[in-house]
Amino acid sequence: MHKILVIKFGGTSVGSAEAMQQVVSQIQIARQKWSQLVVVISAVSGVTDLLLSGARLASLGDEEGAYKVAHELDAKHRRIICELLQSTKEKQFVESRLDTHIQEFRSLCHAIYVLGEASPRALDAVSSLGERISVHILAARLRETHCDARSVLSSTLIRTDSYFQAANPDMDMTRELSRTHLLPMLEQQIVPIVTGFIGSTESGAITTLGRGGSDYSAGILAVALEASELWICTDVDGVMTTDPRIASNAKTLGTIAHNEIVELASAGAQVVHPKAIGVVMNHNIDLWIRNTFNPEGSATQVLPVIDVSTTQKRRAKAVTAVRSQSLIMLEGRGMLGVQGIAARTFDAAARVSANVTLIAQTSSEQSILFAVPSIVASKVVLELEREFYREFEWNDIEAVKVQDNVVIVTVIGSGLFATSEFVGRLFTALGEKNVDVLSISQGTTGGSISVVVSKADTENSVRAIHELIVGMA
Ligand code: ASP
Ligand code: MG
């Protein structure tokens, strides 16, 4: 049996003719070693946002605005096609696919305009168009370079539930469908160019796996095909110790563990979608994070979960910041020992679809403090006031306080926080920079610690912690 490699390229990797040409080179390099290759790609960068903005305009009654977006989408892709493709035959073929999909976008926007609303199902039909277009462009360019490539719609491979906009795969069905469709192609040395982000329900409706979901698609397919390796190709040299725009001495990590990268991704580092890691974990798939634009450069290998109890080398690996957060605090003497307050609090947050990014509770139980993205903070407060109106009347809860403009700074490293030593150094370093720590929380696996600081302290905090990491390396 041959070994299979799945490679995923993100939006910036297919964002222009030059970028696509880099992708072609990367695929050629990979083909020298791998006879069976599956490529998963995103939409051209910015396209998914544009598609959704068109749908939003249509739902607000601005049909003209939506048609302008159609025009922009058409021009954006046409430019890439013109610059990239050489043969008239391929050009004509891809342009006809583009025409069809732009027409589909206009029809969907018209329907949304007439209805005056865009259902999650309609939004998935719209937002999936970017990938449905980009696969044709890349496949055509590969054929021009004598690689037998074929575009494949992942709605024929990935079966999901009907949770539109964040659908969940049915792995058994997906395994069967992907193997039936892709294995015969791989045996004939054909390279499938598969749409990321997209699945379909049993009845054939298009679903998407959530924003940034192409990584997840690649992970799902790697598992379904029992691939040996999965490469996530992006526009930075693998996973870095921090954002090089904040600390110029940031470095690529040679290795990182699954649990560490999940913490990192959840903590705002946009290296790889956490769900992609979740799905490949425990599947004996070698995972690499590489740079499309620097194929021979540094890359990061993602290793199986590190067992904290046996880890000899405990060190901080990376630090990252999640911006635009608000802290919400529920306070009151009547909360003491009362059961269910925490459950009701987070239930209320979930009702307004707020993603709780950090939780801290004092042992006196007189307050619950948590963070949410600022964009949903006022909705959460309203919902909490509604949920606890009785407790407010009885003065069991005295206030719901909000602090905007805060940032969650998270440092990652397996087993690190089993030792108190690092924690001490962490706070000393922050103290030396006069950073006020507003709250602290430790990750569930003990592999991370987060501090909440005000927005103005972001750079100082990240740099101070990064210096500790560099010093430990
Ligand atoms: N194109 C989709 C998005 O922008 C999926 C992806 O890029 O991973 O969210
Ligand atoms: Mg993307």
How does the overall form come out from the CA principal axes? globular
Task: Identify the CATH homologous superfamily of the largest domain.
Answer: Acetylglutamate kinase-like
Please give the radius of gyration in angstroms.
Answer: 24 Å
Low-confidence stretches: none
Architecture overview:
The chain is α/β, with parallel strands linked by helices. The chain folds into 2 domains: 4-235, 3-Layer(aba) Sandwich (Carbamate kinase), CATH 3.40.1160.10; 318-472, 2-Layer Sandwich (VC0802-like). Helices cover 44% and strands 20% of the residues. The chain has 15 helices and 16 strands. The protein has helices at residues 17-33, 47-59, 63-84, 88-115, 120-127, 129-144, 171-187, 214-224, 258-266, 274-280, 341-351, 374-387, 389-393, 420-432, 458-472; strands at 4-9, 36-41, 149-152, 191-195, 198-200, 206-208, 229-234, 255-257, 286-291, 300-303, 318-331, 358-361, 367-373, 399-412, 439-442, 448-454. The protein has an 8-stranded mixed sheet with strand order 3-4-2-1-7-9-10-8, sandwiched between helices. It has a 6-stranded antiparallel sheet with strand order 12-13-11-14-16-15. Strands 5-6 form a two-stranded antiparallel sheet. α7 links the parallel β3 (149-152) and β4. α2 runs parallel beside α4 (88-115). The protein binds aspartic acid and magnesium ion. Residues 10-11, 42, 212 line the site of magnesium ion.
